[in-house]
Amino acid sequence: MTETLEKSAAAIVGTSPVSRRFGRSDGEAFKRTMARIDELGLKENLLELETQGYTVVPVLSAERVERAKAAILRRVEKQTGRTIDPDTATSADFQGMQYQHYLIFDDPVFQEILLEPKPLALMSYLLGESCVLSSMGCHFRGPGGMPLPFHADGAADGLMSSVSMVANCNYALTPYSAEAGALAIVPCSHLKQRQPSAHENWSAGGETIADIMARNPAQSDLDTIEWELPRGAVTLTINPGDAVIWHGNTWHGGWRRDLPGVRMNLAAYMCRQHMLPQERRGDDRYPEVFQRYENEPRFAQLLGEKTFNGWREEGPDFSPKKFAPVGLFD
To answer: Which strands, in side-by-side order, build the sheet including 54-58?
Structure first.
């Protein structure tokens, strides 16, 4: 009788979501994360992430950059029904910025980029090994329009903390400069743990961007406004293939493009496993993609296949196929 009770108790403990955490240490995940950062030569980048709230890492080869650009152009040209020359396009071809969403399954190059080791190591430091891809898209920007207002990707005011709940990896696919519509960042702003105010944002002629937009100016007027960066902000003048990784609290925005051609990036936005991703995970329409990466367990993790929460009437899955983190780094 006693032996039967002991076996029953062991079975219960083995399936308990609480008891399954016993014996696991977040410290081991931290050691793995730091060892990976050391192995990849990212210690200085990690210091920049902690102190400045962002870091820049050269990552993508020229070949991979061109493949990503070609795939994005195919998407945009299909949407617009016109051919867009990335070097000479005018505002008549494509004006301002439009986000091209859900690129992960558009082309194999996006899946390859998702698994780039260096950005992934820094993202794991910020969000834990169990982090999930929230969204992957391109902020496709032609000449004219408005700058992207400064903001933090993290939660609303009052919900931020020093711990990053989301983080962004922004790959430059075309050269970045102010005239070309570059990304701009406010160093150390992640320490403020709040969103920027209207007076900490773009301004022009003594007016805030909020004041200007309240007037609902004509598009032709928007194209002539001389925008001024917020105090302390820096423009990232970087090269195609460079990746900018930043803490979810870091304030950032983007310049209007004033040159012919288009500005292309690839934003791999990630979140902690307990958060709801921007894109719906569990997309089973592309089995061949998951088959391609069946020997890369991190891919399934990033695409939400191992997330513990999210069950229906079948209830939670307590098998090793699902994983729930216990700390900041696992």
So the answer is: 54-58, 242-247, 166-172, 265-271, 132-141, 97-100
pTM of the predicted model, to two decimals?
A: 0.92
> Is 190 in contact with 249 (CB distance < 8 Å)?
yes
Greater pLDDT, 221 or 50 = 50
Q: Mean of the pLDDT values across residues 301-324?
A: 90
Measured in whole angstroms, the distance separating CA 124 from the mean position of its chain's CA atoms is 12
- How far apart are the C-alpha atoms of 73 and 190, rounded to whole Å? 33
Which band of pLDDT confidence, cut at 50, 70 and 90, is reported for residue 18?
A: low
Q: Which helix (H) or strand (E) holds 13?
A: helix 2-15
The pLDDT mean for the chain works out to 93
Crossing angle between the packed helical segments 43-52 and 117-127, to the nearest 10 degrees: 40
Listed residue (154, 162, 193) closest to 275, CA to CA: 154
Distance CA 271, CA 259 (A): 34
Domains in the chain: ranges and CATH: 25-302 (2.60.120.620)
Contact 273, 132 (CB under 8 A): yes
Beta bridge partners of 204: 207
236-290 pLDDT tens trace: 999 999 999 999 999 999 999 999 999 999 999 999 999 999 999 999 999 999 9
Radius of gyration, CA atoms only, the chain: 22
For 88, the token pair is 């000479």
Distance CA(234)–CA(186), nearest Å, equals: 6
**Pair 122, 268: CB distance under 8 Å:** no
pLDDT in tens, 135-164: 999 999 999 999 999 999 988 888 899 999
Q: Please report, for residues 168, 266, 271, 293, 319, the alpha-carbon distance to residue 135 in angstroms, rounded to integers and kept in the order given.
A: 10, 10, 9, 19, 27
| Coil vs helix vs strand at 8 | helix
- H-type alpha helices, 53-196: 62-80, 108-114, 117-127
- Give dist(CA 251, CA 190) in Å, integer: 7
**For residue 226, what are the contacts with CB-CB under 8 A and spacing of at least 6?**
204, 205
Largest CA distance in the chain: 85
Neighbours of 195 (CB within 10 A): 18
